[in-house]
Write a structure and sequence with these properties.
The chain has ten helices and six strands, in the order ααααββββββαααααα. By secondary structure, it is an alpha+beta fold. A six-stranded antiparallel β-sheet has the order 1-2-3-4-5-6. α1 packs parallel to α4 and α9 packs antiparallel against α10.
């Protein structure tokens, strides 16, 4: 038995099924309660918009539920692990497995494999469903739960720096060299002081710059406005600098976020916070694999005095401590205090070592 990583096939299926059933039951209960509480706080705002009714309420539920599932799935895995191991310990099944020659890692193997499958499904669910639901819900909330305008990829109120000068574009339509600018305002600065303001109703790509017109120039010193016709400005400013705006990491899939980070980096914009969110799209779902290790104290422990409830509380404390550390590290990464990779993976690696240390010191 010691040469095998798993227990027997029967025992593995028995433990895996017990773990999955309890995890899904806890997840369903959490989603039901939390969605009801969330709906109580948002239903009034939804129904405030004229014409909204039951259909909009159910639409909100369909968009909000995936977010709740994604956020509380690791909690459900933690509680499912503790309940499963507590039940096995209480029925002396763990003692029987240990007496048959299995190590603690072999006893936990079926739960770890099942949690790995949950992590893979969680990543796919987050990437394909949660990101789209989050993006749609954010757009809907911006219009106060009213009718959403068609998103044609247009950008509003885009700021671009051209050396010392600042350029404000009221609306950008299209992408690349086909981008068209509307309501262009250029703040011409010299030595940090505003020298003139150039305005034009429209602009298009022209070589390495942008042809705007008919332009007018307002001189700050003299207070005079001078017509300039069509002029070429912002030479060296790329088209993607107008089309790249703030990226919502939660509402963007893994592949789209990776491409956006590459584009922002090429445009010279900061990407550290987005890189941390990109790594967290992997480490977040993978945290489910940690839960059997952190909750193992409910099944194993040095004390055999019947303090099963205390060991279950310790397992819950370890799991919740991981979530606190994970949120803290991600916040520090968004602030730029932690490197992106460290912000996403440091809590995972730290609690992996803590779980292994506790398991080895107590049982191996």
């Amino acid at each position: 038995m010691r040469s095998q990583f798993f227990p027997s096939r029967t025992v593995s299926l028995y433990m895996g099924k017990m773990f999955l059933v309890r995890t899904l039951a806890i997840l369903a209960a959490l989603v039901l309660v939390l969605q009801a509480l969330d709906l109580l706080s948002e239903s009034g705002t939804i129904l405030t918009y004229p014409g909204n009714g039951d259909a909009q309420i159910w639409r909100y539920v369909s968009l909000r539920t995936p977010e709740i599932i994604a956020r509380f799935l690791p909690f459900s895995v933690l509680l499912g692990t503790i309940i499963t191991l507590t039940t096995l310990n209480q029925n002396s099944e763990v003692i029987a497995l240990k007496a048959s020659g299995l190590s603690a890692h072999q006893v936990l193997a079926p739960l770890i494999v099942a949690s790995l499958a949950i992590a893979m499904l969680s990543f796919a669910f987050n990437d394909r469903i949660v990101s789209r639901a989050t993006a749609t819900l954010n757009r809907w909330q911006k219009v106060q739960y009213g009718p959403m305008p068609t998103d044609r990829g247009d950008r509003q109120n885009v700021w671009v720096r051209d050396g010392e000068d600042l350029m404000l574009v009221g609306q950008v339509k299209g992408k690349g060299d086909q981008a068209k600018l509307s309501t262009v305002t250029i703040y011409d600065r010299e030595d940090g002081n505003l020298a003139a303001i150039i305005r034009a109703p429209r602009g298009v790509r022209d070589g390495d710059g942008w042809r705007i017109g008919p332009a007018t120039r307002f001189a700050v010193a003299s207070g005079k406005t001078t017509p300039m016709g069509a002029i070429v400005v912002a030479r060296g400013v790329r088209a993607d600098q107008f089309t790249l705006t703030n990226i919502d990491a939660d509402g963007t899939s893994f592949g789209a976020l990776r491409e956006a980070i590459a584009d922002l980096g090429a445009a010279g914009r900061p990407t550290k916070a987005l890189e941390g969110s990109l790594w967290h799209k992997i480490s977040g779902p993978l945290s489910s694999v940690l839960m059997p290790l952190l909750g193992a104290v409910a099944a194993f422990g040095l004390a055999r005095s019947g303090q099963l409830f205390l060991r279950a509380v310790i397992g819950m404390s370890l799991g919740f401590a991981y979530f606190v550390a994970d949120n803290f590290a991600l916040a520090m990464g968004n602030l730029g205090a932690y490197p992106p990779f460290l912000a996403a993976w440091a809590p995972f690696l730290l609690f992996l070592m803590i779980g292994e240390l506790l398991l080895v010191r107590t049982e191996e």
